[in-house]
């Protein structure tokens, strides 16, 4: 059995051992996404234009009202026409992404409803982040740094990789050990009067090995630069991937970026998405309870809580400070009230501290993207 989501092959036919989806349920969701049920919204009836002339009393006439025919004659009493009621048509049946998530992850409170409108973002260069849906047309807001490839940060991440550091140390130690061994052999050959050509061969190898030791940092730099350039090309040509709480993934090729703020926006190729109501951050009071939704360290759809700590002036705007944990993977996710409305975009933390995070007020995203 091959998993339709992650491609994992196994013998079991009920549930994927790799990504934990149930095959039947996943297939049903995909079918509903491709073929949304028709809306039950009723079309309003068209009214017949009223005549400017009076009905003649001697001639029979017909009134078409609600599909019934009533005749008026000389001697017959006029039948009463049923009066129209003020009952509203039933709301349209849920469809699209909203119906899909309502079935797979029915929200039990306002926080879980906001969770259903939060997305997990993965980039070609391995960066993880979050975003959230702000309109039913599936428009999403996130941080610009979540979707932008930063060469300096990527290079620093490569150098700080423990596996790479261990590989470089091992290579350096192997070359040094070989260099010391050849030095010992060379000294012994000189002392024993070995043939000149043998001594020269060892001396040449020693010289080349010494050059390689000296060039090792440069080799590492060249290899890292090549990897960074390769990834920069992929970042320009490959899509980012946004996924919903039920695992549905969308490839995103076009992103709007703010020129002045750490904000970005894109749209899912879907319809009728659940969305988070945009609130106002100006009426926040210190101590108000707040929640974050995101994917810290890849732990998708984690909810954490804290309080509003105060406003802090940044270089170009006033940020919202909170002690609700904001970790890598939370960036771009919503900072919400207890009623599930969003008041900020989780953006940054103060390095070397805990419990000091900052969010961009939602009003700035409203103005930037005309939300």
Automatic annotation (TrEMBL):
Signal peptide: none annotated. InterPro entries: Peptidase_S1_PA, Peptidase_S1_PA_chymotrypsin. Keywords: Hydrolase, Protease. The keyword Kinase does not apply. One of its GO terms (biological process) is proteolysis. It comes from the Bacteria. GO terms for molecular function: peptidase activity. Pfam families: Trypsin_2. Residues 30-54 are annotated as: Disordered. This is Trypsin-like serine protease.
């Amino acid at each position: 059995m091959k998993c339709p989501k992650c491609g994992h092959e196994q013998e079991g036919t009920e549930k994927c051992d790799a990504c934990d989806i149930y095959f039947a349920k996943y297939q049903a969701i995909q079918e509903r996404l491709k073929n949304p049920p028709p809306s039950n919204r009723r079309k309003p009836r068209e009214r017949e234009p009223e005549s400017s002339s009076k009905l003649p009393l001697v001639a029979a006439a017909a009134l078409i009202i609600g599909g019934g025919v009533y005749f008026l004659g000389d001697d017959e009493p006029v039948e009463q026409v049923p009066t129209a009621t003020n009952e509203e048509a039933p709301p349209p049946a849920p469809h699209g992404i909203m119906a899909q998530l309502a079935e797979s992850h029915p929200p039990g409170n306002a926080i879980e409803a906001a969770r259903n409108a939060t997305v997990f973002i993965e980039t070609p260069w391995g960066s993880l982040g979050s975003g959230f849906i702000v309109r039913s047309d599936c428009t999403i807001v996130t941080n610009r740094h979540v979707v932008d490839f930063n060469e300096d940060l990527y290079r620093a991440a490569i150098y700080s990789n423990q596996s790479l550091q261990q590989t470089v140390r091992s290579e350096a130690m192997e070359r040094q050990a070989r260099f010391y061994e050849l030095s010992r052999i060379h000294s012994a050959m000189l002392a024993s009067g070995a043939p000149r050509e043998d001594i020269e061969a060892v001396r040449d190898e020693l010289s080349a090995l010494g050059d390689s030791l000296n060039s090792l940092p440069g080799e590492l730099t060249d290899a890292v630069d090549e990897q960074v350039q390769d990834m920069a090309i992929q970042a320009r040509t490959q899509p980012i991937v946004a996924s919903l709480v039920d695992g549905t993934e969308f490839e995103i090729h076009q992103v709007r970026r703010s020129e002045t703020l750490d904000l970005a926006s894109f749209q899912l190729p879907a319809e009728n998405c659940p969305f988070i109501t945009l609130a106002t951050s100006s009426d926040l009071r210190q101590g108000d309870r707040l929640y974050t939704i995101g994917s810290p360290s890849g732990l998708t759809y984690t909810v954490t809580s804290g309080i509003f700590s105060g406003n802090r002036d940044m270089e170009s705007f006033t940020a919202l400070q909170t002690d609700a944990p904001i970790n890598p993977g939370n960036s771009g996710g919503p900072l919400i009230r207890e009623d599930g409305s969003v008041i900020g975009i989780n953006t940054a933390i103060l390095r070397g501290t805990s419990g000091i995070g900052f969010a961009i007020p939602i009003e700035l995203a409203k103005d930037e993207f005309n939300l």
